Amino acid sequence: MIRLVINLDGLIVSMLTPMNEDYNIDFFGLKNLTARLMNKGVQNFVILSENSEYAFFDYSFQKKIVVGVSKEIGVRGNLIVGCFSDSTDEIIEKVRFAEKYSNYCLVNVPFNALTNEVDFIDFFDNLFTKTKANIILYNNPFLFKKNIPIFGLNKIVGWEKLIGIIDCSKNKSYFKMLCDYHQLLKIFQGYEVFAVESFNFNCSGIVSGLSNVFPELFLNIKKNFKLFGYDSLLRQEIFLLNMLGKISLGKEVQSYKKMLAIEGIIQEYFSDELKKLSKDEIIYLENILKKSIV
């Protein structure tokens, strides 16, 4: 598929995986969710990230997600495919499959390469030699044990197919250091609590799971930041902080799916590996949907 490359900037939606009662992909729900987001102006999507429940799916299931979402987005948006593994060979295998359906692949750096400078360079040399996709790095020390070292980034920042980094470190100082490279790379904030503040550091955009439910809340943050400045967005940031602060830690995916199910977009089914929502949590989510977004 030849894709129209749209400017990769602003909001990236970290997509959920709609599922049926038997835990197979709900392709009708996938179509509904994708259409809803695109109709609201979303152009950038990442799949097989944390919000997709990818860690609970085998590789054949992950491939079905790639094919299904690619079909729905077509040439109208940017699709970024998560290709995560502890093994360099497995990451390359996943990228080689994903690049048939997308211009962009999101990869982690294997732990051995995070801790050894020679292995770090070898990883990227292998990745860029054996694949064709544009590469975005995924920095998440909670999943992959360590931040991508800045000393290593200095050595690869000019490589042609490396186009950006999504940072989920929840570390302002580290994110600010990444943003020093903003003229060479796309730098995205993956921790929604820092969504507004990150533009003070010249970030390129935001990666959000909550935007599956409230894309409007995030779509115009960058534009409004440029027009009105940080102080004018404090009210929006406070609303966002309050909302996120009351969604139980570790139950984000379940919460997003529940809200979308209430709206009739997808079914609320999620992996058995995830905890169920309590009655009080469900009532809170129902109340969120009743409130207007400020």
Strand line-up across the major sheet: 1-2-3-4-5-6-7-8
C-alpha-based Rg, rounded: 18 Å
Global structural class: alpha/beta
CATH fold assignment: TIM Barrel
Q: What's the architecture in CATH terms? A: Alpha-Beta Barrel
The unreliable regions are: 1-5
Please work out how many helical segments DSSP would assign: 13
* Number of structural units classed as domains: 1
CATH superfamily: Aldolase class I
Gross geometry: globular
- The overall pLDDT, averaged over residues, is 90
Question: How many strands, which pairing sense, and closed or not: the largest β-sheet?
Answer: 8 strands, parallel, barrel
- The CA-CA distance between the termini, in Å, is 39 Å
The CATH C-level name is Alpha Beta
Share of residues in helices: 40-55%
Describe the secondary structure blueprint for this structure.
Blueprint: E1 10-14, H1 27-39, E2 44-47, H2 59-73, E3 78-83, H3 88-98, E4 104-107, H4 111-115, H5 117-130, E5 134-139, H6 141-144, H7 150-156, E6 162-167, H8 172-179, E7 186-189, E8 205-208, H9 215-219, H10 221-228, H11 234-245, H12 252-262, H13 279-290
Parallel strand pairs: 1-2, 1-8, 2-3, 3-4, 4-5, 5-6, 6-7, 7-8
Structure overview:
With 294 residues, this protein is α/β, with parallel strands linked by helices. The protein has helices spanning 27-39, 59-73, 88-98, 111-115, 117-130, 141-144, 150-156, 172-179, 215-219, 221-228, 234-245, 252-262, 279-290, and strands spanning 10-14, 44-47, 78-83, 104-107, 134-139, 162-167, 186-189, 205-208. The protein has one domain (10-228): Aldolase class I (TIM Barrel, Alpha-Beta Barrel). The protein has an 8-stranded parallel beta barrel. Helix 1 (27-39) links the parallel strand 1 (10-14) and strand 2 (44-47). Helix 3 (88-98) packs parallel to helix 5 (117-130), helix 5 runs parallel beside helix 7 and helix 12 packs across helix 13 (279-290). The radius of gyration is 18 Å and the shape is globular. Residues 1-5 have low confidence and may be disordered.
